[in-house]
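Record passed on underneath.
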Amino acid sequence: MAKQAKRVKSKYTKARFKRELPLHLMILPGLILVLIFSYVPMGGLIIAFQKFIPSKGMFGDQKWIGLKNFSYVFSLPGFSRALINTIEIAFWKILFGLLVPIVFALLLNELRGRKFKKAVQTIVYLPYFMSWVVLGGIFHDMLSPSGGVINQLITALGGKPVFFLGDNRYFQGTMIATDVWKNFGYGAIVYLAAMLGIDTQLYEAAEIDGANRWQQTWHVTLPGIKMIVVLMTVLSLGNVLNAGFDQIFNMYSTSVYETGDIIDTFVYRLGLLDAQYGPATAVGLFKSVVSTLFISVSYFLAYKFADYRIF
């Protein structure tokens, strides 16, 4: 009986593999790209523990110095400032990056005009595909203290021009607001897709019980998208040390280093401009380890308190 069961199981496994072979072949190019661009470059992390001299090559006769690159970087006067700025900007981006799409998706879900709903959905989704190189130039023009549209409006209302991209008081808020504006359309699409999976009979039952639209939203819609909210939260917490290099690099200047310099721009100047490859790699490794810890802890908490599982 045991041998017969093994033969049946083996035949089932072979048949299943043949059936799923096209799917495995479709995944293969993506796996190869991830291997080449994500895993192979991880070999370069050894630079963080070396006194790296480029002329000798990464695997040449380099001098190993242990954790000295880390202690050197942590002692630099600009590192603590960049770390605090990164955490502050990333925290508010994560918070509003979750709240704004949820609220917008709930409002959009209440619209009954199908064509108007699709049009709004498309319009708010378009900025997500635009590069920060393009958007940086647009915002530089719009927020200019001399001829920008925003400052012209402020002046017309009796206010004084604001240097959004050159004043430390406003720079972080500008980065957070522009990032949320760019990305909330994508988040709203995700939540709207989750809302489509909610059983309409639940709304009908709630309406029969006398629930108004707000009560239906609170007791039916929000619980119905709870899992996708947890998923987006878990994924976003991995970016707690990623405040957005593309955005800030294209919009900041030396005048706002105090509040605008983040770890990624700090590494850019340290590694590419100052050619300190070892310390720059050490900062990148530190950032990756902290991000991994955050996403692991957030997944554990999601599993423990919300019974959420990825697998």
About this structure: The mean pLDDT is 84. DSSP finds 14 helices and two strands in the chain. The domain at 71-306 is CATH 1.10.3720.10 (MetI-like fold).
